[in-house]
Design brief:
A hairpin with a 4-residue loop joins strand 8 and strand 9. The protein is of the alpha+beta class. The strands form 2 sheets. Strands 3, 4, 5, 6, 7, 8, 9, 10, 11 and 12 form a 10-stranded mixed β-sheet that branches. A two-stranded antiparallel sheet has the order 1-2. It is built from 4 helices and 12 strands; from the N terminus they run ααααββββββββββββ.
């Protein structure tokens, strides 16, 4: 435990642990509402007071006006691996499955900032980019992506999918690279991260 963490109140420490465990389990932070529900805090302002205390002690950082934009500042992945945040649909939209596993890709990726995580692909909608069912994609957590990038996109309903990102006027096109599948059009998708690598276990 760091010195900053040791100086937390009991409630702050529990909230910090909940944030840490949630990020490790699924690759992104809980919302203010999720924290409030977890600890029986009646108002968002009550949660924000605790989050500001954690920020002041340099344990987390937050981006304004984003519901899940909480980052840990003093803890990297355990054992030098990357968090396996779940399985991501490369077909239809599908809720990401939370898992408490770690995948060690340290020799391939240098994650000094702790912003990388891994997802295991389910489906074949990205086969045009040589991403197939069962592969692991390595994702850099970031809120924006260049047009055409392969991203993990997440909707307001918490559904996640792996597609190419194409903003088009007042909508977003999530484009598969399997010619047999059609794009997904949505107004509410946002970027959770950009794919920076693919890892495949060879089957014999």
């Amino acid at each position: 435990m760091t010195e900053s963490a040791a100086n937390l109140t009991q409630k702050q420490r529990k909230i910090y642990e909940f944030i840490r465990q949630t990020i490790r389990a699924r690759g992104y932070a809980p919302t203010v509402r999720e924290i409030a529900d977890k600890f029986g805090i009646r108002s968002p302002n009550g949660v924000m007071c605790h989050l500001r205390a954690l920020e002041k002690k340099a344990l987390i950082a937050r981006e304004p006006n984003r519901s899940r934009a909480i980052r840990l500042l003093q803890e990297g992945p355990a054992g030098g691996g990357l968090p396996l945040a779940g399985r991501i649909a490369a077909g239809r939209l599908h809720e990401a499955i939370e898992q408490k596993e770690w995948v060690d890709f340290t020799n391939l990726f240098n994650d000094k900032d702790g912003n990388l995580f891994a997802l295991q692909v389910q489906g074949d909608s990205m086969i045009g980019d040589h991403i197939t069912d069962g592969d692991y994609v390595i994702v850099r957590r970031q809120p924006r992506a260049p047009k055409g990038a392969i991203v993990v996109a997440i909707t307001d309903e918490g559904e996640a999918t792996l597609k190419r990102w194409f903003p088009e006027g007042n909508r977003i096109r999530l484009q598969p690279t399997n010619p047999k599948q059609k794009p997904i059009y949505t107004k509410n998708a946002r970027v959770l991260g950009v794919v920076v690598g693919v890892v495949r276990k060879v089957k014999h």
